[in-house]
Amino acid sequence: MSTAVASLRTNAANVRRLLPNWVWALVFIVLAILYPTIINAMVSAPDDLLDASIQTLAYVIMALGLNIVVGFAGLLDLGYVAFYAIGAFVVGWLGSQQFADVNGGNGIHVLVPGQGLSGPTPGIHINFFFVIFIAATFTALWGVILGAPTLRLRGDYLAIVTLAFGEIVPRVFENSTSGIFGIGSTDFSNGRQGITPIDKINLPWSNTPFSSLDLEKYYYVGLAMLVLVIFFNIRLRDSRLGRAWIAVREDEVAAAAMGVNLVRTKLWAYAIGAALGGFAGVFLGSVNNTVNVDQFEFGLSVFILCMVIIGGMGNIWGVILGAVVLSMMNRFGLPKLNGVPEKFGLDFDVTSVNFGIFGFFLLVMMVLRPEGFIPSGRRKLELREAEIDEADHIGAESDRQVYEVRQA
Amino acid sequence: MTEQRTEPAPAAATNGGGGALLEASHISKVFGGLVAVNDVEFRVPQKAIVSLIGPNGAGKTTFFNCLTGLYRPTTGRVTFDGADITAKRADLVTRAGIARTFQNIKLFRTMSAIENVQVGMHSRMRSRFTGMVLRTPFNRREERESHEKARELLKFVGLRRHDELAMNLPYGDQRRLEIARALGSDPKLLLLDEPTAGMNPQESEELRRLMETLRSERGVSVLLIEHDMKVVMNVSDHITVLDHGEKIAEGSPAEVRSNPRVIEAYLGSQA
């Protein structure tokens, strides 16, 4: 089997080498842009699929954010959902009627349609495209605040502390119905009801928000955000900071002795990872039209971590693939199979055992392909070290070959 | 590259020529009840190659760690190039101009040789976050220059497989790569912790020549921990001997070789 996989990989590498990288990027972007049209023509119920795809875009962004923390910097974060929560609440605060008293009940409006049926809409309403960046900055700040106490921890201990943060943050929001951290008396979250409705996205130059039936527009907004995030990730990976992250993951002591500031390097990883979580949180908040603490459960942190692991930790394209596969399975694949157990005389929905299925999937992956779908060359070598055939690497012209593996 | 060669000149000027590059006074390090290093005085002159020797467990590496900020010395003061660096963070010590290698090789195993050296240059690179994301002309130039400089350093230490991952390099090359990585930060003082361990005599000889080139061409001082007495005696201007955390002797190679306490420490008392 391994030879089959190997020949598949060489073939894939050969195909990839036919065209320069930017052409491939263009091909994928064009495909992604045409995707709604394609499924419209080919699928009988395209809305379900498109809806799942929109959610998937947000999950891909989150997986890429977590990949920076876990895949690049090697900091196992089990509380990533906290940043999704913070981002979502930012859009809840800045894009709904939550703070109805603000500005004497007239509300604050920035590049959004301001007039309701009876006078101006109360509450703060800031254009979505501003809120995503405000939220990204705000969550980055919280990434640093939550990251700072964990800097001295590694491995299991780090995982436990971040897990706790992932639980604490939604609880804080849930209980912030009368001031936050006991300060003031403003209602920040509506408790378990959550904040709803959230403003629809509208383009800054347009006065008409997207209709909730207009899925294609949401899809394109999500896609644009994702392209921006991928660009951002690639640039960072190939920079001085990206190298410092990997150095810290490999050997903290050596990295420090080479002049890498450990605190700053790790905090950058937390900040950027968190910012991307907040970025996606705003989008999901707006798409789902509600921000509710029930959305931010521990399972979601694990789900996103699974995307990173199954896709190939540390490899941007692998993580994207992992996120697409898992999220589409969750949102689209499993609901389609809901009728299957009944045919066998069993009485349950496939969706209700989704975590069982993902767990099993993860288990199978760990046995057959622990490095993920598209592993980063580094990671694969680490996991398959024992299998590496010495002869392969001592061969005379091996330089170029190894370089290729790293790009895989 | 030119920058690197000119650097030692102003350093020598600030020290008035004759001053020591590194001066450590009354360094002690205590772990619980164990005194690993006890009140050691130590200095490295400009453009010198000095060695630290002693039997296993004498506290040599602990002393190294106290100098480079990996340990905080229990007592004592370290001055480097006129500035107090006692108990400074390791990355700040490196920035100040001390680079080191490790006894048990600590390379970034899944990075290529070039990338390892580029990490070594981290403290000398100045790209900011926005520069990295927007890939400004400054950032591009700096990346390109760091790449070229890394290749040059790898050539300098005699490593040919530049794009090979560190973990796939043979042992001797890994040692060489560690030196190249340390040189990435343009150090004024290079600390080598048992660099010839596991090398054959020919490789040790190459390393000895490398150290002398470093001093003569780049003006880098070298502080060496070493067990291979042939290398130590051939290359050092000055040798310090530690035993049980204490300095028992120092002087020129000839003096140390004939010192009865050193012989006793190495061979045991014959009483």
Distance between the termini of chain B: 56 Å
- Helical content class of chain B: 40-55%
Helix amount of chain A, in percent?
55-70%
Would you identify the regions of chain A where 5 or more consecutive residues have pLDDT less than 50? 386-408
Determine the strand fraction of chain B and express it as a percent band: 15-25%
* CATH level 4 superfamily of the largest domain in chain B: P-loop containing nucleotide triphosphate hydrolases
Please characterize this protein's 3D structure.
The complex is a heterodimer of chains A (408) and B (271). By secondary structure, chain A is mainly alpha-helical. Chain A has a domain at 18-296. Chain A is built from 17 helices and four strands. Chain A has helices at 2-17, 21-42, 46-72, 81-94, 128-147, 155-174, 215-237, 240-250, 252-257, 262-288, 298-311, 316-336, 340-343, 354-368, 377-383, 390-394, 398-407, and strands at 108-110, 115-116, 119-120, 124-126. In chain A, the strands form two sheets. A two-stranded parallel ribbon of chain A has the order 1-4. In chain A, helix 3 (46-72) runs antiparallel to helix 10 and helix 11 packs across helix 12. Chain A is globular. With 271 residues, chain B is α/β, with parallel strands linked by helices. Chain B has two domains: 1-97 and 187-271, 3-Layer(aba) Sandwich (Rossmann fold), CATH 3.40.50; 110-185, no CATH class. Chain B is built from twelve helices and ten strands. A six-stranded mixed β-sheet of chain B has the order 6-7-8-3-9-10, with helices on both faces. In chain B, strand 9 and strand 10 (246-251) form a beta hairpin. The longest helix of chain B has 21 residues, at 137-157. Chain B is globular, with a radius of gyration of 19 Å. The N and C termini of chain B lie far apart (56 Å). The chains are: A mainly alpha (408), B alpha/beta (271). The interface between A and B is large, with 37 and 46 residues.
